[in-house]
């Protein structure tokens, strides 16, 4: 059942009904979007506190508003916990989200027109890594690297050759659809050779890094950018983690360079999430996310799914549905009707258009947060296989049957912060 929101229901019943419907949807579906997760009740409560009433331009001890007696220690607590958890010299927890955090990096270390390098978006990178339709590709000279066609892995020979030829000021590593371990040391070696600032965007894998299920970008990266949700299970926010030499330009770029007052309720929720991520149980969670993804990848491969790079080392799986003769968009929409929430996605060297691509991206963070284990991954693979087949056959009855089966399993595994009753 949806949670009780008496004040919201009284003030705005139309919106309350939509919130309740979303709560029910999150409760009884198998959420497999790789960038989504469930926050704990504590994180949810912190996000909704009276801290949303407070303005706090500046940094702890250096504010432009009075009345910061409680806000300053909250931000200091969040920043200290972030630096400790990730082994950084300095942490800025004010960025509103991942894209603004990355924009702050550009403002700190580059000038408009400078050359920057990042992973091509269709190959698994992010819009803000210099892709053409992004402001970062319009204001800067974006050079893009990719993956090998035969392995689906990053082509470091290409990365090195491009870096030597174009001498970028910034090199971004990380992205949104990379199913394999990121070799931060290899990127660092190339960046040092051309005296570039290495930026590791770990938005997707931050929780895995915190939990020891993925190698850390430190000490290799100069700056680390990350969101605070996804695998980290925090609120929708972001952080910039740096070596000491890069702290001041990053702080200046965030404020006053790009932002005014930070969102203090989000900062508080970030502090809670970081505290949770420092617990031994979170390490178990992070490793379980990877174990589930690998078990699911193996089960899908057995059913003839073409997995980019052959599998996964982290939380996400990228599939090329071309052999199944079903476009990614049609498959994703059909699976959604079956209660399996995914997203259609380009795959490397995709001949189809980005809004109607060949691929499907799935992830295991949310289902792991609900307590599903490797023992459940066979069933999840069966549902995906049946759902894709039903999409091809336009069999809505089959999708409806899967929807009921998914809801039955979800009822047995309540989501954190969202009791199922």
Automatic annotation (TrEMBL):
Domain of life per record: Bacteria
PTM sites of type N6-(pyridoxal phosphate)lysine: 230
Subcellular location: Cytoplasm
Cofactor: pyridoxal 5'-phosphate
Site annotation Plays an important role in substrate specificity: residues: 229
Pfam families per record: SHMT
Record InterPro entries: PyrdxlP-dep_Trfase, PyrdxlP-dep_Trfase_major, PyrdxlP-dep_Trfase_small, Ser_HO-MeTrfase, Ser_HO-MeTrfase-like, Ser_HO-MeTrfase_PLP_BS, SHMT-like_dom
Coiled coil feature spans: none
Gene Ontology biological process terms in this record: glycine biosynthetic process from serine; methylation; tetrahydrofolate interconversion
Residues annotated to bind (6S)-5,6,7,8-tetrahydrofolate: 121, 125-127, 244
Enzyme class label: transferase
GO CC entries: cytosol
Keywords linked to the UniProt accession: Amino-acid biosynthesis, Cytoplasm, Methyltransferase, One-carbon metabolism, Pyridoxal phosphate, Transferase
Self-association state and partner proteins as the record states: Homodimer.
Family the entry assigns: Belongs to the SHMT family.
Protein name per the record: Serine hydroxymethyltransferase
Taxonomic path: Bacteria, Bacillati, Actinomycetota, Actinomycetes, Kitasatosporales
Gene assigned in the entry: glyA
